[in-house]
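Can't paste images in this forum, so I'm doing it all in text. The chain is below; anyone willing to post the predicted structure tokens underneath?
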Amino acid sequence: MTETVGVGAEASGRSGKKRQSGAAARKGLKVQRVYTTEGVHPYDEVKWESRDVVMTNWRDGTINFEQRGVEFPEFWSLNATNIVTSKYFRGAVGSPQRESSLKQLIDRVVKKYVESGTEHGYFASPADAEIFEHELTWMLLHQVFSFNSPVWFNVGTTSKQQVSACFILSVDDTMESILDWYKEEGRIFKGGSGAGLNLSRIRSSKELLSSGGTASGPVSFMRGADASAGTIKSGGATRRAAKMVVLDVDHPDVEEFIETKAKEEHKIRVLRDAGFDMDLGGADIASVQYQNANNSVRVSDEFMQAVENKSDFGLRARLTGEVIERVDAKKLFRKMAQAAWECADPGIQYDDTINDWHTCPESGRITASNPCSEYMHLDNSSCNLASLNLLKFLSDDGTFNAELFARAVELVITAMDISICFADFPTEPIAETTRKFRQLGIGYANLGALLMATGHAYDSDGGRALAASITSLMTAVSYRRSAEMAGVVGPYEGYARNAEAHQRVMRKHAAANELIRTFHTNDVNVRALATEEWQRGIEIGGTSGWRNAQASVLAPTGTIGFMMDCDTTGIEPDFSLVKFKKLVGGGSMQIVNNAVPRALHSLGYQGEQIEAIVDYISQHGHVVDAPGLRPEHYEVFDCAVGERSIAPIGHVRMMAAVQPFLSGAISKTVNMPESATVEEVEDIYFQGWKLGLKALAIYRDNCKVGQPLSTGKKEKAEADPEKVVEYRPVRKRLPKKRPSQTVSFTVGGAEGYLTAGSYPDDGLGEIFVKLGKQGSTLAGVMDAFSMSISVGLQYGIPLEFYVSKFSNLRFEPAGMTDDPDVRMATSVLDYLFRRLALDYLPYEKRAQLGIFTADERSAQVEADYGNGNAEPESVDLEALRSSVDASGSRPVEQKPPQEDDSARFQEAHTTTELMELHLGKAADAPLCMTCGTKMRPAGSCYACEGCGATSGCS
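Text version of the structure:
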């Protein structure tokens, strides 16, 4: 394999105008080998093996896909094998026409690209076409990159050759246009893709119709579109329908738009508390509206400056543009943050920033985005995506191979442009715009794993410098290659009209590249090469123009990320340090991510130290207090979730670092803890504007009610009550008649009474505390406190949580008690919750809290010292357990934590479920509708690592 040669273009300096005179007058691209060896086919370089793919639904154990005897390279994981076989192999399962080898899949796609490239004059000779075919084949075979899902679904089949996953539609202020919107969205959803659009041209509910009546406004028309999307959402081959609805901040109905989904979330809570099934996919959730779209408000610099200055802002009529109402900008911005805090919608898009980087302003403004906000361009357009696996360019010595990365980008961007030559599109306006502007979306995955492997914290200056340099190099090479292709097959049709603006944006990218502050050999080398590429691209493009109006975005890389065996998706940090891995031949295991030992090696740790730290991470899921790991290195291992999770602003700073080097934007949701405040959401949205982002969305943990529970999990919980995991709060009220007991107590001379009421199945459900004289302040406070604790217990807050929080509190009265099991108390609350623990918690939980009865303490002393000369190890613990259980006391030697953990970890079916066990709490993520396992974040949506299904993006 030779890595130093690349792909060149002959006569690329000639004008695009001349180049369009005919294929015979053009010289195609000279393609040189990067990965392959002359005379050796890529398939002959790897060892292949036969595998059986049997995928089950974890909820009920049924088989939802089965294909035996499929052929894959031995280095592909079982997860990647399963996903590719079930999602991308074409032909009816069980028929002779069904694909059964990765070779067939890659050949089906690559040969179509080469055929089309040859037909349209991209290659200088048949030999160049063959090299191009081998290079693409090698890269796909070795998981260096992947096209987006529609390519694998459609290219080379008898179906329409749709290659795009992202669409932007357009709607005007007429009933005909609105009905066309419904129809076009439905057609796109039926194929499993998604679309976005801006509704701001539709008159508001505060404006008049030509007939004299009042307009109904865009929000009313959203209801019909939402119902349509909800009906068609299961039509896709690997995901449900996804859509984005955008409204400008100066639209008179913007406040109604902002509160739309938050109000529906309130409705969900009321219906849930009334007993309706409001889980995602539940029987009654269909009665809730606006749940099939992501909503975003498009804000202007004028509005954000009004927020900053605390001044008012004008809302404008749609037809005349006149101001019909003035509002307090700060209050409106707060309503956006409040709604996002409550239900994660709306997101925010920064209009002036988006259009300042627009290469084609003479052809129209950018008004909307695709559902995940990474693709932003003209209305009625589309974008086909591909993503590179960054870890494939990290050498064993920890250096990032910038030259090899550049050569790979050349090949991929060339293939992506060729696809537009043969692609089909869902509507004629989309086809016309896409062929005229040829928008591409090259991106990458595994950034989080790369940063960790090189010893960089995700939220660090060094990490951001490397990410920015790589992104700059990727886009620089893409545009340089686009300029070279323009010299061979002509620039995009809309270039002539937008030449000045396009060149201006290229200079803006190059100027931003000069502002990258470097810290390490890696980012120094990458940025230096990026500087050269920007200079070359601008020089070539100044003569030839560019083949593509857009080149790069950062997509979520959900399904294709699993196809490439990536540890992290898109721009995301590592989800966790441990992950779930399926094994060939059946079974599964928990493993520590490969980036962890590489990171430790980069940081200078030696073999035995690395082994000890990795073993600690395997047991605990985090690095805090790992043996031999220096605290200053903890940040390198910070993840999206866990003991040390990355702060929300850390995610925003990473987005801001790479945004100046992307044609489009970034698919990413900034995850915020449940404890985050509305003010913090407001600040994140404000900082996104200040830092130059194009779009931003947040998700506060557990802000949504609709989280699905699988039947299998419920049945398991009923069989083993020790392992119940509550996914949402549901109040379980006590029956009218319930058992209770009253205990009198004395603490430090103060007398009182504790009454505890139980459920018939013997679980604590309420408490009443009488302390002080009736009508006194103390008595009133204790009544309110009792009510608060009782409601919390009925909503499922574990008693042990209250015990851990209120035991050992110190205030007067304190001192001796009249209870033989609790002889001393540091406060009344300390006594009360110790007593409740003794009466209602099992021994194992009390042992963790250090709370025992007098008999239990005596038995422990007897076990340790009461047998004369016997050593504690000689005590028959099982006999002791049995004898003491009979008397009501249960001293038990606790199992080593790793033994308990190993048994629990075997119950996980995905990395998310594994992290739940490590963290001891449920992850706020949906279950896969296909296989029932917990999904994990991928950009602004979720992906299932078990079957590859996504919640709306690919």
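The longest helix spans residues 461-489. The chain has a mean pLDDT of 85.
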